[in-house]
Amino acid sequence: MKLVVFGASGRTGHLVVAQALTRGVEVTAFVRRRHRLAPRLGLEIIEGDVADAAAVAAAIAGRDVVISALGVTTPLKSDPVVVAGIDHIVRAMEAGTSRRLVYLSFIGVAASRAAAGPLIRYVARLPLRHEIADHELKERRIETSALDWTIVRAPKLTDGPPTGAYRFGESITATSLFPRLSRADVAAFLVGEALDARYPRAAVRLFPAAT
């Protein structure tokens, strides 16, 4: 399998790359700055900007699966470039042969907010309103595409080690006030979903294991 990862040098994206390589996947990493990702066997690094539709299309050409772990440039702010980047990814995939897209979203979007826990539902949604609105725009673009997509709605991400102790499903709910999950666990799920396609054309929620 040939996989291209957008946002590959980010805090979650580089873990996606590492886990995919560990599983024997041929990985192309699309990054803004090449020096932020160390070369590894089986890894091709492409430096580019998701605002450049031609560069995005070239990175996707010949690959089987796309994972987007794109994050905002400035926290708590809207990022129109990333919103446009998702549109470029979708258009390139629809015009080519790649059909499988796994997109990392946030549990606080309107469609899953009621399941996210009280702090995200009532408090965090306010400072995060711009990022949430961007995720909702990107989700709608993906959902209305002709692609074989999976949207992964994760809670607050941490930099802790992988635990393997997390829940996933289309209708599960939080069991804590403010659910958090390690980026390593999220990366593992993203790669597993890219390989196995357990949730085609569906939005799946991730939460830590119930305690």
List the helices and strands and how they pair.
Layout lengths: L1 E5 L6 H10 L3 E6 L11 E5 L5 H8 L4 E4 L11 H16 L4 E7 L11 H7 L4 H15 L4 E7 L1 E3 L7 E4 L10 E3 H14 L5 E7 L3
Parallel strand pairs: 1-2, 1-4, 2-3, 4-5, 5-6, 6-10, 7-9
Antiparallel strand pairs: 8-10
Keywords for this entry:
two-stranded parallel sheet, alpha/beta, globular, 211 residues, 10 strands, Rossmann fold, eight-stranded mixed sheet, 33% helix
Number of domains: 1
Molecular shape: globular
Oligomer: single chain
Query: According to CATH, what is the topology?
Result: Rossmann fold
Number of strands: 10
Instruction: Classify the secondary structure makeup into a structural class.
Output: alpha/beta
Number of helices: 6
Low-confidence stretches: none
The CATH class name reads Alpha Beta
Structure description:
The protein has 211 residues and is of the alpha/beta class. The chain has one domain: 3-Layer(aba) Sandwich (Rossmann fold), CATH 3.40.50.720. 33% of the residues lie in helices and 24% in strands. The protein has six helices and ten strands. An eight-stranded mixed β-sheet has the order 3-2-1-4-5-6-10-8, with helices on both faces. A two-stranded parallel ribbon has the order 7-9. The longest helix has 16 residues. The radius of gyration is 16 Å and the shape is globular. The model has no long low-confidence stretch (mean pLDDT 96).
